[in-house]
Predict the structure.
Amino acid sequence: MIMNDKEFVNETKKHILTVGKYINICSKLLFERAITHDQTKMENPEWDIFKEYTPKLATSTYGSDEYKIFLKEMNIALKHHYENNRHHPEYYENGIKDMTLIDLVEMLCDWKSATLRHNNGDIIKSIEQNQKRFGYSDELKQILLNTIKLIEKEIV
């Protein structure tokens, strides 16, 4: 059966509106994440520890021995933070494999922002290092790289 022109136009418009509805749902979820991101840092046990270590982390190189020592020293705050913030792979039993695309977008934006706080931050290197840390595939790594390039084009 072949649709007539009117049926095709109506079906296509319906499809476009439905896709728009789902994109708007994703946008709403991301907007909510933008508002609630890292709110746990505003309370203890995170407040005191992050207040002390944020400047120390800024002068360290991501993934370095010094950086890893700081993370160990921040254990109580990080444990609380990871348990309460789903944009971290550590939140999930199976790590990054249990995350949603919404989680991944927030995570990527978090990583980008974190690189701006480090004296020698580099989002490309972070994505590559985090592949080893979190065990994600080459395909996901490439998607993250493609996405950050797209985001960075929009920064004025």
Observations:
- The chain is about 70% helix and 0% strand.
